[in-house]
Every structure is written in C-alpha cells, then in structure tokens.
C-alpha cells in the first residue's frame, strides 16, 4: 500500500529528528512508499527522504500558497506513484484538508481527515481560539461529505465533539497518536542528578499556558517554596515568557532551552526532572506527558486529550484546573513528598507501557489499510 500524507511537519526536511521523524521509523515499515507534502520550513531544506521509503516534498511558498501546492504537487505524485489513500493532518485554516479534498475529488483516491485536536476544546485560551473553533466546526461540516473518515487520537474528548457536530459514528476512526519507544523513554538504570524540579516541553504558543506556569512558580516562591524549572521550546511567546519570568523575579530559578537535538537528549531531560508540567487548554495527546511518564517522571496536567483518563485516580500524577492556584497546588503536592513522587513515577511508567511504540503504530497502519480494504503486511 502507498500513502500520500499531507502533514504539518516542518522538522524532518531540515534534518531535525522530531516526533514525525521518530514515528515514521516504524510506521513506514507497513507501507511500500510514503510521500509527504509539508509546509515550507524556516531553514534551508537538507533532507529529501527518511527511512528509505518516506519522501519529503516541502512547499516552496507560504501558507497562502499551500492549497495550490497540494493540488499541483499532489496531482503529480498521484499520477506517478498511484497512492491508495491520502492522509491529511488538518488544523488551523485547514489548507491541508481543502487541498486533499480537491485531490480526492479529482483523482478518486479517498482521503482521511486527521483531527488531532480542536483549538478551544475543552477551553479557549483567547478570542482567537474561539474563532478557530468556529472555523474547525465549519470545516468538519464541509468535509463530512468529502472525507472517507475522520481520524481522532483519543477515545473520549474528540469522538464526543464530532458527534455533537454531526459526524456519524461510522465516519469516526479512533487511532491513537501516542506511540512511545519504551526502550528509549525509560526510567534511569542508575541514580541521576536532578537538574530541575519542573520541566516544560513544547512550542511556546498561547494554548500551552506558559503564563500560568510562570505565575504558579511565582506563587510557590511567595509561599516560601523555591522551585527550579526548565522550559524547552521556541515559538512566538518565547520573548514574552522570558519577560514574565524577569518581572516575577524568577530569573535565578527558570532556564530556557531552545531545542534538544535528539530523542535521547529529551529522555535525559525527563529523567533529570521531578515533574513534567502541561498547562495547556487544548491538546490531542499530549505526547510529552506520556514520554515523561514512561521515564518514571510523573506529570501535572490539565484535563486535555487523554490526560483526564490517565491521571484520573491520582496514582501517576495530578490533574489541575485551568487556573494558577490549582496548578501551583498540584506542583507542590508532587514536590512536597519525595517518596510519594517516586511511587507516582513507578505508576506513571506502568500506565505509559500501554502506548508501546511498535504496537500502537501497527494499529495505526492497520487502521489505514482497513479503510481501503487492503491487507497490512510489515516490510
């Protein structure tokens, strides 16, 4: 089986081994060929293919040109490679889905619309997310008659939302996107030196709750608890977050890191932390919480994506509200008793094992084969 994937990944074509690169290492073994249409990266393209049979086709123009690029380059690839399915990662202004629907209508190749999360679900971080949620609802209503199915990545939040928006159960396919390499992301084999109490990993954008993370650290400091933190990521809110840290007088507690080069480095960062914090207002996974849990580091998280399911009993971390006092209280709860934190870390590892990399990706691959009625065979 051959795939044409329309992705939002910008890392692989510039040689960065991010989540998409890591996913394709196993996923690609279930397909003869995968062609990936992706946005123009912010640095020169250095990589045209990965893992032997995954071929990257970054756009030459910006967002406004994406629909035209998908139609043009996608039509060329359909003519030359004859893919069996178009898989479109749909978000934002839904350029990918609009272009994929056009390709599907022209060629007869079915397309799957992947909705990993919707901005403003469960909580809107700002007016922009309210607007984005409206756009998502309009897109899904438009795509219902065009897509073979909608792929969602959790079994609670997203299927319920799509049903409310008029998508029938038969058109909703749950295929998780949390696939964790449990050998790489694993508890330390020997004692490690803790480098920070709190770790954040993610793109620095509004829905990540970075303001509440900084404010929670300031609140804990006012209570007499000095909490060290490392924030790994880059994005449009990086400068504003640095300024917020400075205004709060936390410059001696908070360290910023742009990027870690490899997944091994990321796993080391998880293991060197006492708590992983996710303060997001909307997420599909989130992946970083489960990677951290696999490393034996418990999580504090808002009730987004699958976290409401994974942390509901409090054994592997704490759920917090979308407010600063709740976040601060949850962080403090994990940090005030080291034995309890370690026990939570062991429970977190057990929970993370259900997301074993090869098994989950096999389920994803088989789900795509089933959509087009083809047998799945691993290469």
From TrEMBL:
The keyword Glycosyltransferase applies. The keyword Transferase applies. Signal peptide: none annotated. It holds the Pfam family Glyco_trans_4_4. CDD domains: GT4_PimA-like (cd03801). Residues 196-349 form the Glycosyl transferase family domain. GO terms for molecular function: mannosylfructose-phosphate synthase activity. Residues 24-176 form the Glycosyltransferase subfamily 4-like N-terminal domain. SUPFAM superfamilies: UDP-Glycosyltransferase/glycogen phosphorylase (SSF53756). Keywords: Glycosyltransferase, Transferase. InterPro entries: Glyco_trans_1 (IPR001296), Glyco_trans_4-like_N (IPR028098). This is Mannosylfructose-phosphate synthase. It comes from Engelhardtia mirabilis.
């Amino acid at each position: 089986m051959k795939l044409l994937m329309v992705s939002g990944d910008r890392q692989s074509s510039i040689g960065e081994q991010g989540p998409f690169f890591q996913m394709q290492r196993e996923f690609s073994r279930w397909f003869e060929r995968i062609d990936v249409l992706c946005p123009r990266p912010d640095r020169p393209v250095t990589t045209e293919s990965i893992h032997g049979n995954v071929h990257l086709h970054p756009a030459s123009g910006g967002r406004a040109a994406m629909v035209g690029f998908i139609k043009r380059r996608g039509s060329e690839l359909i003519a030359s490679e004859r893919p069996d399915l178009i898989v479109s990662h749909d978000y934002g202004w839904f350029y990918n889905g609009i272009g994929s629907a056009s390709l599907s209508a022209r060629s007869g190749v079915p397309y799957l619309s992947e909705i990993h999360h919707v901005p403003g679900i469960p909580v809107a971080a700002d007016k922009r997310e309210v607007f984005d949620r409206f756009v998502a609802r309009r897109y899904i209503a438009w795509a219902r008659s065009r897509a073979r199915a909608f792929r969602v990545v959790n079994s609670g939040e997203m299927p319920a939302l799509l049903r409310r928006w008029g998508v029938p159960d038969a058109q909703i396919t749950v295929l998780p996107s949390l696939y964790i390499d449990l050998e790489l992301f694993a508890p330390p084999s020997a004692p490690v030196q803790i480098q920070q109490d709190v770790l954040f990993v993610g793109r620095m954008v509004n829905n990540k709750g970075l303001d509440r993370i900084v404010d929670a650290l300031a609140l804990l400091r006012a209570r007499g608890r000095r909490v060290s933190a490392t924030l790994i990521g880059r994005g449009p809110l990086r400068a504003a977050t640095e300024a917020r840290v400075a205004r709060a007088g936390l410059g001696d507690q908070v360290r910023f890191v742009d990027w870690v080069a490899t997944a091994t480095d990321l796993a080391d960062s998880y293991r060197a932390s006492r708590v992983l914090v996710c303060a997001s207002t909307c997420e599909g996974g989130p992946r970083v919480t489960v990677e951290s849990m696999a490393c034996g580091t418990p999580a504090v998280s808002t009730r987004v994506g699958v976290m409401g399911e994974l942390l509901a009993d409090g054994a592997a971390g704490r759920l917090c509200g979308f407010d600063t006092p709740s976040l601060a209280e949850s962080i403090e709860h994990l940090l005030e008793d080291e034995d309890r934190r370690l026990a939570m870390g062991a429970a977190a590892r057990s929970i993370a094992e259900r997301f074993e990399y090869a098994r989950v990706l096999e389920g994803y691959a088989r789900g795509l084969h089933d959509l087009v009625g083809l047998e799945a065979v691993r290469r």
